[in-house]
Design a protein that fits this description.
279 residues, mainly alpha, MetI-like fold, membrane, Carbohydrate ABC transporter permease, transport, MetI-like_sf
Length: 279
């Protein structure tokens, strides 16, 4: 009797938990659904939005495609994200590996410096950063948009904690006994072990760099060098704004992020949970 009651109680708790999670998922997806559906509306009918698709999708699509630099926007965002992910992951992993597995003078100070960079809002350094890019004649290039993703304090801290708790020192010592160099150990042994953390960090850097708006806004004036978030602002007119086409453009710029997340969501979740358990 008691066992059946406990079983019924557990079933009820699980059922209630699933209902709560389903409701949370629905509330999370509503903004995305609204954004995609609003892209089918005329600007003047947006305030009549009823949750159902309208018949203005083709007109908004033509308006978006009329922007001659739209292909450049997508290419620039792709270049920025690809370079940021590849170099950012490599640099953060190498720094994290050094801080986690090597003892040297000043290591604790470097760890504190990494934590300090995470506490300071990056907006405080934007003025100096823009000035530095101008002095180096890097304005109106994609370099200023890429550089912030290469030295992420969060990335270094994340990889330091993950490598420290996940990679056994004995494996590295065995590899050194077998005459393996540090570079070979790093790429052939460390990388496969921490692959969930690498995928997680890569996804986060991709999302941040793809959605970056403020840095390119302050450092790029050439329309042909705009990224997608910056290119969407071209739909803001002096006297009027084509909000329907603008929302459709935002929806299109969101699709790559959603696709990447869907493809690598399992790795992302496993990396986050492994870091949480072991940290």
């Amino acid at each position: 009797m008691h066992a059946s009651r406990r079983s019924d109680a557990n079933f009820a708790i699980k059922g209630l938990t699933y209902i709560v999670f389903v409701l949370l998922a629905i509330f999370t997806l509503i903004p995305f659904y609204s954004m995609f559906i609003m892209g089918t509306y005329d600007s003047y009918r947006l305030f009549e939005f009823d949750g159902l698709p309208s018949n203005y999708l083709s007109a908004n699509w033509k308006t978006v495609m009329k922007v001659p630099e739209m292909g450049d926007f997508f290419t620039n965002s792709l270049i920025v994200s690809a370079v940021a992910v590849s170099l950012g992951v490599l640099i953060c992993t190498a720094c994290g590996y050094g801080l986690a597995k090597f003892s040297f003078k000043g290591r604790d100070s470097l760890n504190r410096l990494v934590l300090f960079t995470m506490m300071v809002p990056y907006q405080l350094g934007l003025v100096a950063y823009v000035w530095e890019m101008r002095v180096l004649h890097l304005n109106d290039t994609l370099v200023p948009t890429i550089l912030p993703s290469l030295c992420l304090g969060f990335g270094v801290f994340w990889m330091t904690q993950y490598i420290r708790d996940t990679v056994p020192t004995e494996i590295m010592e065995s590899a050194r006994i077998d005459a393996a160099g540090e570079v070979r150990i790093f790429f052939n042994i460390i990388f496969p072990i921490i692959s969930p953390a690498i995928v997680t960090l890569g996804l986060l850097i991709f999302i941040w760099s793809w959605n970056s708006f403020l840095v390119p806004l302050l450092t790029i004036n050439d329309v042909h060098k705009y990224t997608l978030p910056l290119g969407v602002t071209l739909f803001n007119g002096l006297y009027s704004t084509d909000n329907g086409a603008k929302i459709l453009a935002i929806s299109l710029s969101t699709l790559p992020v959603i696709l990447v997340y869907v493809l690598f969501s399992n790795k992302l979740i496993s990396g986050l949970t492994a870091g949480a358990v072991k940290g």
